[in-house]
């Protein structure tokens, strides 16, 4: 911590509290207005299973879509139906409220990350405002998918991890394990990521704190395992790690035929008969070892899909989720699509800019500052997400956790821009910046015309 960035108080200023209220009100108003124009002629994709399962859960009937789908969202949606009634609108309204809670959670997360900084309030308010207006976060609050509830558990999960590091108390470990366990019941791959994040907590501790953090990490993993265990057993198929979708996505994503792309603008699909004929029979490891060139090329393809400025908001717009697209003025459609695409590109670029500005020097590798710990959390989470995309399928919805990181680091960069001149970056920072900008701009260059052409 430098002299120009002294510690801040633990409580936000009164003006900051007023700003929080205004941003929350704006976030709620924007999402509620957007919800008022949602007019889907039918449920789309995963929404069918989620709503059907929620109805069964609300009626205390066997949920037939389990274990195909992760259970927690179905439990959540079913509970809303049991309380408010059997319409998708009530679930969407509940998700609007949850996303407003996530908006507040982003402020709390940034205050926790940068609490040693004089710019903590400014950074937190910037991040909260950015989350409130980001088009994809707004749009997903209306879809009967797991993403909105998942993002809430993700944000508060990182808050719990940072508190676990700073407080080193058993009750915080229990809370962290519970939140990340619930997160895994929404996105099963969290089971693999959580232990890696706990390892960051241990490695970033000083010599005396490592043993305590290791003890708390074991406790947190035990609580998370206890949380997910009921969802892994008692199925007709026997033991299933939360959901059976994982095996399917790995088979589709790592195979001889091109990986599917479910984003609307450039879908690649093959008949099941073709897949069975040319599909791999060996394990993933054997396939990768026997086809390194093919696997590498497919990896580049999926990474390009992952960082391309495509979104389910664009797909749903042209599938009639917000009314008949042909009845909408062409300029309005174009404005929505361009706004969505530029917001994705912009947040990725500024997120990389802020991310590289936080890159710790080697002497700070074991720094106790929460901002450095969150930096390594973001690094580990992003790398594991990209590895998952390389092995499985690539969809823009998998990018949402990384967009949360982009919001945080963009806000930090905006709050600290006068204190961190770009010319003072190290060679490693410049290299990381070049890679991040290259991937983002390259994906945008090669995919934007395809997205626009398919959309029209």
Q: Estimate the mean pLDDT confidence.
A: 88
Rg from alpha-carbon coordinates: 22 Å
- How much of the sequence is in beta strands? under 5%
Low-confidence stretches: 1-8, 361-367
- Give the biggest sheet: none
Please indicate the count of domains.
1
What gross morphology would you assign? globular
Q: How many individual β-strands? A: 0
What's the helical proportion of residues?
55-70%
- Determine the N-to-C terminus distance: 51 Å
Helix segment tally: 19
Return the structural class.
mainly alpha
SSE pattern: HHHHHHHHHHHHHHHHHHH
Describe the protein's architecture and organization:
The protein has 456 residues and is an all-alpha fold. The protein has one domain. Helix 9 packs antiparallel against helix 17. The chain is globular and about 60 Å long. The N terminus is likely disordered.
